[in-house]
Design a protein that fits this description.
The complex is a heterodimer. By secondary structure, chain A is of the alpha+beta class. Chain A has 3 domains: 102 residues, 2-Layer Sandwich (Beta-Lactamase), CATH 3.30.450; 75 residues, Helix Hairpins (Orthogonal Bundle), CATH 1.10.287.130; 166 residues, Histidine kinase-like ATPase, C-terminal domain (Heat Shock Protein 90). Chain A is built from 13 helices and 14 strands. A 7-stranded antiparallel beta sheet of chain A has the order 2-1-7-6-5-3-4. In chain A, strands 8, 9, 10, 11, 12, 13 and 14 form a 7-stranded mixed beta sheet that branches. In chain B, a hairpin with a 7-residue loop joins strand 1 and strand 2. By secondary structure, chain B is mostly helical. Classes of the chains: A alpha+beta, B mainly alpha. Chains A and B meet through helix 2 of A and helix 1 and helix 4 of B. Chain A: Its EC number is 2.7.13.3. Chain A: Pfam families: HATPase_c (PF02518), HisKA (PF00512), PAS_9 (PF13426). Chain A: This is histidine kinase. Chain A: It comes from candidate division WWE3 bacterium GW2011_GWA1_41_8. Chain A: InterPro entries: HATPase_C_sf, HATPase_dom, His_kinase_dom, HisK_dim/P_dom, HisK_dim/P_sf, PAS, PAS-like_dom_sf, Sig_transdc_His_kin-like_C.
Chain lengths: 390, 81
């Protein structure tokens, strides 16, 4: 608007122009508020004192509270989040975080009035003219979680039901193969051994699936104890020596000087090592396998299983530890190796549940590979006390 | 009278509470009971008269644009027959 024109205006006209502009601004504000208010995600915002400045319709609906009653209140009084282990999560923990990973949560539990909700949380910091606010979005994933649980229950029950008849089938086939049911000719014995291998593979798959379901449902208990690595490895290596000798492979053990005892569940640790060793033997035709343990720092020990086998290409490494992440899914490979594609995924879950990390390195196809994981080292009495109390 | 309250509230969002309150008082149809903008009593018993005077008061200062804002509020409150 021209300034000379404005100077000619009567005060009433100026008031009317300002009024019209304010009406426009009010309409814009209302439209923005309505968009935020009606989105299907629960959205709220807090100021730098963690007081609520915005509370949308989904928030009102899920928490059965009116926005007019909660605006200005501390968010911790209204939004009650906790971890799946029941640990409360305060608003200070996930808002105004510079690190994006700290500003988001997955599978948190939101306390509602009649029911609780599983939610994924995302936050963004909004810099205003002279202050800042944090916008928090909670996506309700309760249905997805329930579906997951139904699926896990189904797998768990089905696996249980499959295991018993499969064990019976395998036992009778074995008895037949042993000649307990009378003499068998060569052709019949050949058929039987194929049937036994098939039943074994299926039983392995069922067992792995069942283990997986238990791990994912948190139903596996860990009995942590102090373990001396040298003794532990010698015990396992005795079992595997027969297999490596059969294939003409060497099997070496190297527990470095100063490697402390470790704190782990003996059976789970055994399962992890057996999985690594089993894979190495399967995929190594020449050379051999060595197991090593080294101290990373005062409370961490790294265990490495290195082989001179098939190796892994760089691009295949990321999917190795995923469910059914077998690299070569051809029927031929499955038939030859007898694996289920779940072993490394289960191993990873076990390592992580014991507080460790897992990984693999390889210089490429045909150049062998090193699978490793970390476990808690027990360096002193003080560490043991902390671990037991923890 | 709910409609009068809503008109005053809506006007307060555009011109601010102080001005909206002042213009409503000047219309001579309302009395405020507290500092809250919607805590008021309509003193004019005739509904149509009350609304006309209230709108007139806003129109005097802010023109036709303020009448349209009031009309939008009225549309949300259909008169009971």
């Amino acid at each position: 608007m021209d300034i000379d024109y404005i100077k000619t205006l009567q005060p009433e006209k100026i008031a009317e122009e300002v009024y019209k502009k304010n009406v426009e601004l009010l309409e814009q504000r209302r439209r923005t508020e309505q968009l935020l208010y009606w989105v299907s995600e629960l959205i709220f915002a807090v100021d730098d004192k963690y007081n609520i400045t915005l509370f949308n319709h989904t928030a009102e609906r899920l928490l059965k509270k009116n926005s007019s009653d909660v605006l200005g209140k501390n968010a911790n009084e209204i939004i009650k989040l906790r971890t799946d282990k029941g640990q409360p999560i305060t608003v200070e923990e996930y808002t105004f975080q510079g690190d994006p990973s700290k500003g988001s949560l997955e599978g948190a539990i939101l306390t509602g009035v009649d029911q609780d909700f599983f939610v994924n949380v995302k936050t963004s910091v909004i810099q205003l003219q002279d202050s800042k606010e944090c916008l928090i979005t909670l996506v309700d994933v309760t249905k997805e979680k329930q579906l997951d649980k139904t699926k896990d229950d189904f797998i768990s029950i089905t696996s249980h039901e499959l295991r018993t008849p499969l064990t019976i089938i395998k036992s009778y086939l074995w008895m037949l193969e042993q000649g307990r049911g009378g003499p068998m000719n060569e052709k019949q014995t050949g058929y039987l051994s194929k049937a036994i291998r098939g039943a074994e593979r299926m039983l392995n798959l069922v067992n792995d699936t069942l283990n997986l379901a238990r791990i994912e449902q948190g139903k596996i208990a860990f009995k942590m104890e102090q373990i001396t690595l040298n003794d532990f490895f010698k015990e396992i290596l005795e079992e595997f020596k027969i297999k490596t000798d059969e294939k003409g492979l060497y099997l070496k053990l190297n527990v470095g000087a100063g490697v402390p005892n470790i704190y782990a569940d003996r059976n789970k640790l055994r399962e992890i090592i057996i999985n690594f060793l089993g894979n190495s033997i399967k995929f190594t035709q020449e050379g051999g396998i060595s197991i090593a343990a080294e101290k990373v720092n005062h409370d961490t020990v790294k265990i490495l299983v290195t082989d001179t086998g098939k190796g892994i290409s760089r691009e295949d490494i990321p999917r190795l530890f995923s469910k059914f992440g077998r690299l070569d899914n051809s029927y031929q490979t499955i038939a030859e190796t007898g694996g289920t594609g779940l072993g490394l995924y289960i191993t990873k879950s076990l390592v992580e549940r014991m507080g460790g990390r897992i990984g693999v390195s390889s210089d490429g196809v045909g150049l062998g590979s090193t699978f490793w994981f970390t476990v808690t080292g027990v360096d002193s009495e003080a560490t043991i006390c902390t671990l037991i109390q923890g | 009278m709910e409609l009068v309250k809503e008109i005053v509230k809506e006007q307060s969002l555009i011109i601010g509470e102080n001005l909206a309150r002042q213009m409503a008082i000047e219309s001579g149809v309302v009395k405020f009971n507290s500092s809250k903008i919607d805590d008021l009593t309509v003193t004019e018993p005739n509904r149509d008269m009350a609304i006309e005077k209230l709108i007139g008061s806003y129109k005097e200062l802010f023109g036709q644009a303020s009448v349209e804002v009031c009309m939008n509020v009225i549309k949300k409150f259909p008169q009971k027959k």
